[in-house]
Structure formats: structure tokens, C-alpha cells
Automatic annotation (TrEMBL):
PROSITE patterns: ATP_GRASP (PS50975). InterPro entries: ATP-grasp (IPR011761), YheC/D (IPR026838). Keywords: ATP-binding, Nucleotide-binding. The keyword Nucleotide-binding applies. Residues 13-241 form the ATP-grasp domain. This is YheC/YheD family protein.
């Protein structure tokens, strides 16, 4: 199966990347029942969609179950059967995945995650271009800025105000993000050829790193234009132009 599940199983085969993947299954009545019981909170995502479309979050509290849908409001249920029935009705027979909710670190009271941009240069070699933090919009469950209403800041700002007030720790986390991104791109060559990859990571409240998604083919460039400092955005455009020019000659 391609899509999110395909990428998940593909990256589970790498011993180092596997450690960064949150527990994930194909959505079924059984997996929903099991994961919500075990983790108390799960993300349910359409296997083939992007940009936050169709994502849901199910949460178990002491008395009830809640289901939050992106831009579609909330539902409450008195028991798990009712939650399952509703999810089944929404998802019909389309493939979805279900995943443990990562307790995302917060910046000024809002969850955020991290996008790392990797591109092939004119020598066709993967290179690290830049990173940013996507802060979620008010009461949103996704960090996709256009659909979720959030905003972008630098990773330094986000880490400083959350899990890494010390400069040394920030540096270490950023180094790990870059190193891991090279590994992800190298491995991706076996999946298919791509010339630009945007990788979504989460940092949890304890400062642990998780891999959320690998966006290939058309990762957003415009996202980086949202930072006040346009240097990464300009580097993206420059790198792309040089890559395409060199490719024309190859
Ligand atoms: N397991 C999770 N725990 C916490 N937040 C998540 C989880 N999965 C997704 N999210 C949030 O939802 C956003 C969209 O999920 P993602 O898997 O990237 O789907 P899409 O392809 O629609 O962008 C992520 O960027 C992140 O902010
Ligand atoms: Mg995404």
C-alpha cells in the first residue's frame, strides 16, 4: 500500500528511523479500540490525503470519548462503541491510519512541530537547506498553516521557549534533526527518486524527537516565506533553479 502506511512500513525497516516513529496501525475497529485504550489519545488520518485534510483526533477522558475533526467541530460519546460507530461512518471504506498522539511541546501555549527542508543540489546530492517551526492555530489539531490557521517561527525560538532553554541543548537537537534528515533522504532513494523532501518532526514535552511525515515531490516552498527572515526561502529558490538547470544538461 502506498500513502502514509506505505511510508511508515518502509521507514520501520531502518533500525534508527524506526525509533522515531510513533506506534501506528491501519485503522480498524480493533486497532481503534486497542490504541485508544492504551494511549488515551490517537490521531486518525486518511492514508492518501495531505495538508491536514480529513485528520481526526480521538481522546478518552475519565467519563467519555471525544472526537475532534479538522475544521469540522467536535463530538462526544458516552462509550467506545459509539465512538467507533461514528469513526466508521466518517471513514466509510477508505483506508486510514491510526497513530498514538505525541504530546507535542508548546510555544506560548500552542503545540508546534518542525519542518526540515532537504533538496538535491546541482551535483544531484542531498543537502540540508533549512528548518522552521509550525505553531498550531487556536484550538487546532494540525500544524498545517493554511488549513490549521497557525504561523511559522524559527526552530531556535520554539526550542528556547519550550524544551531547550539552554543553547547547548538546542544545538544538539538541531544537529540531530539534520543528521536524521540526511539518513531519511538517503533511505528514500530506495522508495523512489525525489529531488526535494520536506520532513515533519515533532518534539515532545520531554524533548524527544519523533518523525511525523516525509513529504516528497512537492514540499511547500512558500512555508519558508512566512519567516520574517527570507534567507532560507531564497536559498530554496536558488537551489531549485540550479538543480533544474544542471538536470537539463545531464
Ligand atoms: N501522532 C501525532 N501526534 C501529534 N500530532 C500529530 C500526529 N500526527 C499528526 N499530527 C499533527 O497533524 C499534522 C498533520 O499530520 P500529517 O501526518 O503531517 O498529515 P498531512 O499529510 O495531512 O500533513 C502534523 O503536522 C502534526 O501537527
Ligand atoms: Mg504533514
Amino acid at each position: 500500500m502506498p500513502g502514509k502506511w506505505g511510508l511508515h512500513t518502509f521507514y520501520s525497516k531502518d533500525r534508527k528511523i524506526r525509533r522515531l516513529l510513533p506506534k501506528t496501525k491501519v485503522l480498524s475497529k480493533a486497532s481503534l479500540r486497542k490504541l485508544i485504550k492504551r494511549y488515551g489519545s490517537v490521531y486518525i488520518k486518511p492514508n492518501m490525503e495531505h495538508m491536514g485534510k480529513g485528520i481526526m483526533k480521538a481522546v478518552k477522558t475519565s467519563k467519555k470519548y471525544k472526537l475532534v475533526r479538522v475544521n469540522k467541530g467536535k463530538h462526544k460519546f458516552s462509550n467506545v462503541q459509539k465512538l467507533i460507530r461514528k469513526v466508521k461512518k466518517i471513514t466509510r471504506n477508505k483506508p486510514y491510519i491510526i497513530q498514538k498522539t505525541i504530546p507535542l511541546a508548546h510555544y506560548r501555549g500552542r503545540s508546534y512541530d518542525i519542518r526540515v527542508m532537504m533538496m538535491r543540489n546541482k551535483q544531484d546530492k542531498w543537502t540540508y537547506i533549512g528548518m522552521l517551526a509550525k505553531v498550531m492555530g487556536p484550538s487546532s489539531i494540525i500544524s498545517n498553516i493554511r488549513r490549521g490557521g497557525g504561523y511559522a517561527i524559527t526552530v531556535g525560538q520554539a526550542l528556547k521557549k519550550s524544551v531547550a532553554p539552554a543553547a547547548r541543548k538546542r544545538k544538539k537537537l538541531k544537529r540531530k534533526l539534520i543528521k536524521t534528515s540526511y539518513r531519511i533522504c538517503k533511505r528514500f532513494n530506495r522508495y523512489k527518486y525525489s529531488s526535494q523532501i520536506g520532513i515533519d518532526y515533532a518534539v515532545d514535552k520531554r524533548g524527544r524527537l519523533w518523525l511525523i511525515e516525509v513529504n516528497f515531490d512537492f514540499p511547500s516552498h512558500g512555508l519558508f516565506a512566512r519567516l520574517p527572515d527570507k534567507s532560507i526561502y531564497r536559498l530554496i529558490k536558488r537551489t531549485r533553479a540550479k538543480y533544474l538547470k544542471a538536470k537539463g544538461r545531464r
